[in-house]
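Priority: medium. Attachment 1 of 2:
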């Protein structure tokens, strides 16, 4: 299995707006995606007020590529949220069970 960690830092003053997208669109979308075994969404804390994250466990690399394409190592973002985001990162690991 593949562990995919996606992190987003919002632009100053955009965390609330991004939070609505995160909770109402992104989390339900990821939870309903074929090939995902588990989704662990992370919301901002006081010491990181503009940071959101997803830890996603994918069944396999083929499932991940079926969702995001062959360029799975790039952090894809919905065009609707692009104006809210300062930066984003993506990392992949083999899940240790």
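Attachment 2 of 2:
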């Amino acid at each position: 299995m593949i562990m995919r960690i996606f992190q987003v830092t919002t632009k100053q003053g955009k965390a609330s707006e991004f939070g609505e997208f995160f909770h109402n669109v992104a989390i339900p979308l990821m939870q309903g995606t074929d090939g995902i075994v588990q989704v662990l969404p992370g919301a901002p804390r006081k010491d990181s007020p503009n940071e959101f994250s997803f830890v996603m466990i994918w069944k396999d690399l083929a499932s991940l590529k079926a969702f995001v394409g062959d360029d799975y190592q790039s952090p894809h973002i919905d065009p609707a949220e692009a104006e809210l985001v300062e930066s984003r990162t993506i990392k992949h690991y083999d899940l240790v069970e």
